[in-house]
Write a sequence for this structure.
C-alpha cells in the first residue's frame, strides 16, 4: 500500500486487524508515519510496518520479497493498493511520482 503518512494503514489495522506494509518513496513521510503510530496507534506496532521504496514498473520482485518478509507464511490474502499520487518528488518534478 502506498503510504503517505499512514492514516489508511492504521485504519485497516484498527478496524479489520489487517497486517499492513506501507510503501513510500519519501523517508520524511515514513518518519511521520512512525511518529503517528507511536503517538496514536501504539497497538499497531509489529502489525503496521513502513518501508522506503520507489514503486515503478520493475518493483514486482521487490514487493514479492517484502510480502514474504513482513507477512506470515500461512496468510493467503493480501491487499495491494497503489492510489494515484500527485505530490511532487524531490527527485523528479513531473508531479506524478509517489
Amino acid at each position: 500500500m502506498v503510504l503517505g503518512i499512514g492514516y489508511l494503514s492504521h485504519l485497516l489495522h484498527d478496524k479489520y486487524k489487517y497486517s499492513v506494509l506501507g510503501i513510500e518513496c519519501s523517508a520524511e513521510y515514513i518518519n511521520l508515519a512512525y511518529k503517528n503510530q507511536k503517538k496514536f496507534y501504539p497497538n499497531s506496532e509489529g502489525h503496521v510496518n513502513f518501508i522506503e521504496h520507489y514503486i515503478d514498473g520493475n518493483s514486482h520482485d521487490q514487493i514479492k520479497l517484502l510480502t514474504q518478509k513482513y507477512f506470515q507464511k500461512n496468510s493467503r490474502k493480501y491487499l495491494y493498493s497503489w492510489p494515484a499520487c500527485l505530490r511532487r518528488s524531490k527527485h523528479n518534478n513531473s508531479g506524478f511520482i509517489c
Remarks:
- The CA atoms of residues 61 and 67 lie 10 Å apart.
- The chain has three helices and two strands.
